[in-house]
């Protein structure tokens, strides 16, 4: 049982016959230690029950439930492909009000793998453009605002095939308080990050801000570390922001591991007002103790979508990342479980993923079609060209005398051309006009 870790088994005091006082003091000290541990256990357990979600024992809608008869006694739930791997959805929320009315600023899948003695952190980038069940295509961080943690888990299951039952949601104010309780974290701040970090600190704290004085390795307090984790308009935008978040979380986990167990109640009391979870007390203790016992505690990290398997574009004016769902789903399972299920079902989002290509092809087809079509003639007044005389008859070869065209008299009658050596004419004392159809014969010129 988990409680056994808090018990001092086979405890006995060595008798000190010479000084009964020492025996009394030692016994009193032991009682104080045991009482402190028991008191801390009961205190934390009582306080913890206040933050566990009311439906903690209910399976989420997207959790696979085998069709078997329910056991008589409670048993451990298999949350993954291997029973010893536990996944927890960590959600960072900037509430400034109520949890349910906020979008998630960070989403990280924390994996505890006792078999390989590893902790793994998988960031889900908030700008991923995916289908949210019942709400169409939107950024994935809208799921929490639209339907709370259950819709977010359902969205992850639908798009990536990964069932997540356990979750921990924390307001960023609690994140800040925890870092201050742990006496800050040491980070290397780059020169291009300083201005943006200070700007964020001033926006939140106003005149009470403790600003950074410059770049370099330095210890950051809670507000400074929170600002470091949230800035995104420098470096590689949201990609670098998720890297900073994983870096800070890794340092936090390491500091918690180095903290004495007797200090855990203080840590818990600091963060509990800003925390919501569906993990009950004893399973959480077991999980924390498992992590505490790991030898190598440097978390392995990754992010989804992975490089070269997403498209960075704009939809309705907003910058989004369209992931290749099939590829990225496989990458999640390979990172967490070192294997991919034989049957991994995810939606086919090829139409959305290739929307830019499809749109470009449609545009190209439209341009080609417009080139082949004749535009409709405009209705403009037509000016009739002047009537021209018929062209002159061509002289046959060898005839150097041109044939005059017929003349039109004022009365509208056609007058044959003047006498001459026209085509078909003969100089035999009279001349007949070549081609004349009027039947009119004019006397030939008698002058010589």
Describe this structure in words.
By secondary structure, this protein is α+β, with helices and mostly antiparallel strands. The chain folds into 2 domains: 2-48; 86-361, Aminopeptidase (3-Layer(aba) Sandwich), CATH 3.40.630.190. It has helices at 20-48, 142-160, 172-181, 191-205, 222-230, 237-258, 264-271, 281-292, 325-337, 350-353, 355-372, and strands spanning 86-93, 104-113, 118-124, 129-132, 136-139, 166-171, 185-189, 216-220, 275-277, 300-304, 310-315, 318-323, 407-408, 414-415. Strand 13 (407-408) and strand 14 form a beta hairpin. Helix 3 (172-181) packs across helix 5 (222-230) and helix 5 (222-230) runs antiparallel to helix 6 (237-258). The chain is globular and about 115 Å long. 23% of the residues are buried.
Write the SSE topology.
Elements: H1 20-48, E1 86-93, E2 104-113, E3 118-124, E4 129-132, E5 136-139, H2 142-160, E6 166-171, H3 172-181, E7 185-189, H4 191-205, E8 216-220, H5 222-230, H6 237-258, H7 264-271, E9 275-277, H8 281-292, E10 300-304, E11 310-315, E12 318-323, H9 325-337, H10 350-353, H11 355-372, E13 407-408, E14 414-415
Parallel strand pairs: 1-6, 3-10
Antiparallel strand pairs: 1-2, 2-3, 4-5, 6-9, 7-8, 11-12, 13-14
Features of this protein?
two-stranded antiparallel ribbon; single chain; 11 helices; alpha+beta; six-stranded mixed β-sheet; 448 residues; 2 domains; disordered N terminus; Aminopeptidase
Looking at the overall shape, the CATH architecture of the largest domain is: 3-Layer(aba) Sandwich
Number of strands: 14
Overall number of domains = 2
Termini gap: 149 Å
Overall pLDDT:
74
Based on CA atoms alone, the radius of gyration comes out at: 45 Å
SSE order, one letter for each helix or strand: HEEEEEHEHEHEHHHEHEEEHHHEE
Helix segment tally:
11
CATH fold type of the largest domain: Aminopeptidase
Strand content: 15-25%
Shape: globular
Q: Could you say which structural class the secondary elements and strand pairing correspond to?
A: alpha+beta
User: Helix coverage percent of residues?
Assistant: 25-40%
Low-pLDDT segments, ≥5 res:
1-39, 57-83, 419-448
Strands ordered across the widest β-sheet: 9-6-1-2-3-10
User: How many strands, what sense, and barrel or not for the largest sheet?
Assistant: 6 strands, mixed
Determine and state the CATH class of the largest domain: Alpha Beta
CATH superfamily of the largest domain: LCP protein
What would you call the quaternary organization? Answer: single chain
């Amino acid at each position: 049982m988990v409680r056994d870790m808090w018990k001092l088994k086979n405890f006995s005091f060595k008798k000190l016959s010479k000084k009964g006082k020492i025996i009394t003091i030692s016994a009193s000290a032991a009682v104080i230690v045991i009482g402190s541990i028991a008191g801390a256990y009961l205190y934390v357990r009582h306080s913890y029950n206040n933050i566990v979600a009311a439906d903690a024992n209910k399976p989420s809608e997207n959790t696979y439930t085998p069709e078997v008869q329910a056991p008589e006694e409670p048993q451990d739930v298999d949350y993954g492909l291997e029973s010893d791997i536990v996944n927890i959805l960590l959600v960072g929320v900037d509430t400034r009000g109520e949890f349910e009315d906020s979008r998630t600023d960070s989403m990280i899948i924390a994996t505890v793998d006792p078999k390989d003695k590893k902790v793994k952190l998988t960031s889900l980038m908030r700008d991923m453009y995916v289908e949210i069940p019942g709400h169409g295509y939107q950024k994935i961080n809208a799921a929490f605002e639209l339907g709370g943690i259950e819709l977010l888990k359902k969205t992850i299951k639908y798009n990536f095939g990964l069932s997540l039952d356990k979750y921990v949601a924390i307001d960023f104010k609690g994140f800040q308080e925890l870092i201050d309780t742990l006496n800050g974290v040491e980070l290397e701040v780059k020169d291009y990050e300083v201005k943006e970090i200070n700007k964020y600190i001033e926006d939140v704290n106003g005149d009470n801000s403790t600003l950074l004085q410059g770049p370099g390795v330095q210890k950051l307090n809670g507000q400074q570390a929170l600002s470091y984790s949230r800035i995104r308009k420098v470096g590689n935008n949201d990609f670098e922001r998720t890297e900073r978040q994983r870096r800070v979380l890794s340092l936090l986990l390491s500091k918690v591991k180095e903290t004495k167990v007797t200090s855990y109640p203080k840590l818990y009391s600091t963060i509990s007002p800003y925390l919501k979870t569906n993990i009950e007390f004893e399973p959480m203790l077991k999980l924390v103790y498992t992590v505490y016992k790991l030898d190598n505690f440097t978390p392995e990290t990754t992010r989804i979508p992975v490089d070269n398997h997403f498209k960075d574009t704009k939809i309705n004016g907003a910058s989004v990342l369209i992931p290749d769902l099939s590829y990225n789903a496989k990458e999640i399972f390979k990172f967490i479980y070192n294997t991919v299920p034989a049957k991994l079902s995810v939606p086919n989002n090829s139409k959305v993923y290739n929307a830019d290509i499809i749109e470009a092809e449609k545009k190209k087809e439209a341009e080609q079609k417009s080139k082949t079509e004749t535009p409709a003639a405009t209705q403009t007044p037509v000016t009739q060209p002047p009537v021209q005389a018929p062209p002159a008859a061509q002289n046959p070869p060898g005839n150097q005398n041109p044939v005059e065209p017929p003349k039109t008299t004022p009365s509208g009658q056609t007058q044959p051309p003047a006498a001459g050596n026209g085509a078909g004419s003969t100089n035999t004392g009279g001349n007949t006009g070549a081609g004349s159809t009027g039947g009119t014969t004019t006397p030939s010129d008698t002058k010589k």
